[in-house]
Fold:
Amino acid sequence: MKETIRMLRVQPSSLSARFAFLAIALRWTLGATPRPNRLMIGPHDLEPVGSEGAFWLFAFRHACSGQSILVTRGGRWDLGASFDGDQVHAFGRRFALRQCLF
Structure:
């Protein structure tokens, strides 16, 4: 079976949804809540994989741009995923765009 990843575009429908990830990061950093094990993002139940710093960076980018691309595989979401031309860096590997499901 081929290794594939899924790229999901998330665009919040309200101002509070735009800053929801920042609120989660702030509560996590302050110790008010433990590290999120699973997050429901639309119909997707995802397990965030990555550090607290990676989550903060994702949350800031999401709040500033008003949209995000999530890179997932199975039920896992790579917080530190990045894009470089026609390659996606996620889950410790490089994937060609042809290995992605949109």
User: Anything to note?
Assistant: The two ends are 18 Å apart (CA to CA). The mean pLDDT is 90. The first strand starts at residue 5 and ends at 10.
